[in-house]
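Input sequence (481 aa), recorded before submission:
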Amino acid sequence: MTVSSADRATTRDWLGLAAILAATFMGQVDGFIVTIAAPSLQRDLPATFGQVQLVGATYVLAAAAGLITGGRLGDRLGRRRVFLAGVGVFTLASLICGVAPNAELLIAARFVQGAAAAALIPQEIALIRATFLDTGQRTRAISTYGVVLGLGVIFGLAGGGFLVHWDVAGLGWRTAFLINVPIGVAIIVLGRVIAESRSSQVPGLDLVGAGLTAVALPALLVPVMLGHEGSAWIWLSAVAGLVVVVVLVVQQRASAARGGEPLFPPHVLTARGMPTGLAAITTFFGGNAGLFLVFTYYTQTGLDHDPLAAGLMFVPLGVGFSVGSAVSGRLVARYGPRLPVAGCLFLAVALLGHLAVVRAPPEAQTVLLGVAIGAVGLAEGLVVSPLIAGIFDQVAPDDAGAASGAAATVTQFGLAVGFAAVGSWYRLVLGGTPGAPDAPAGLAVHQRAYFAAIAILVVLALVTSLLCALRLRAARSTVVA
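Predicted structure, token format:
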């Protein structure tokens, strides 16, 4: 198709893209930067290990609960308007995070951050597609978007170490949040050049479903992180969470039956291969988040590295992921949808390498862990794109948006659960609170805890591989039928 000169992007459009990509980068960084800052945050605030887990998990939980609704709000009210509103709230919440005097306010502000991210993230690709009508320019813009996503992860993990190490104005870990303030203000100023767009059809809003989801996810997660404290309210939270889940299921089915637009359409979630596909995404990203947390604590509290050195040790992960992502498309073209099955088996092998590394002399572990985490990144790069793309195979084109929303939600939920559950397992095996002054001393006890955590991650990788295989079997049975 020939694109007229009127459809080609202007300088104003490219400036708008810069604002969008800056928000993309900021959101990605904030999803990961707290991992590196966690030991310093725990020590300086001070906070319990469970509260540190909540600081990381509440962000992704709030995003998980609001992503679908955020996308629909943009379609209804205008994507630029919702995008800039999300950036504004995110910036304000970042300021509160940076000056928070206690863990409770920090956790609350992180939840607001996640909710704001849920409003702005769905608008990013939609705005890019609406702005760049020329196919070549749109492809270039989306490719740049993918690069920024990767850079955001790397900077969140490695750059977080720099920020904490530099300790600007004695602010320490607080700079990890305060850095968002000038960036957010710049995005709001520059973002006014973004062209407004909205859907030609007004989508429905399932505010009841979104509210129930926002209540259920934290209620179920809190006992995983704070259950060791033994408070009765924590277990009441678990019961309440289960009750809300049942109510959510009933509400979603009732909404679909009367012709509404439920947050999670039952016919999409029950399509052949969809349940196992979503389960595979959950276990895969749960393992990722768990690895990031225990790797950070082992390198900083076990090997006694400072945040800068610990952050730099994540660089091979980003490099490996970039390489794996670059070749995954060609491998899928050659070997078909079996790549996630094989990729997760490779991931299990790469994780097994960590079990060997922790038995090495301490002076050799830094280099060997860098190699081992790089292998993990390579395996993850091979899996991510085909794993997520695979869930669309069994749904009609009209249901692609619902499938995408479900995938985004379980991705965030998996990250939160992995962060919580694997971290709690690490703490249990360690026999004390990681990073606390009274934590068990000696490298041997930290090696044992890290060994136990990696063993769980190996199991999760194998389970993910099995789920991918089951999804393929369900897809084949559909074709035969």
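Checked by second reader. Residues 443-480 form the longest helix (38 residues).
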